[in-house]
Please model this.
Amino acid sequence: MSRAVNLTATPEAVKALCLRHNANISTLEALPAGGCRVVLVTMADADMIRLKMKDKIISGTVVRSGQFHARTAQPRHR
Model:
């Protein structure tokens, strides 16, 4: 499993749920087509969010905003 979860909920609703259940958010971003993508700090937090919001999980691939970029390895200089 992944620590990332795509949901049909608003970022505010996800923040509120995480606050209520002491789940730590690594990153939270709104999706262009609606909903949000949340990455939790631990797998336990991610599993809890999946359980609590199981009816709001987006299955399959989602389009993310262009302002967020995946981390890439920094070039090594010798």
Notes: The two ends are 36 Å apart (CA to CA). The mean pLDDT is 87. The beta strands are 4-7, 25-30, 36-40. The chain has two helices and three strands.
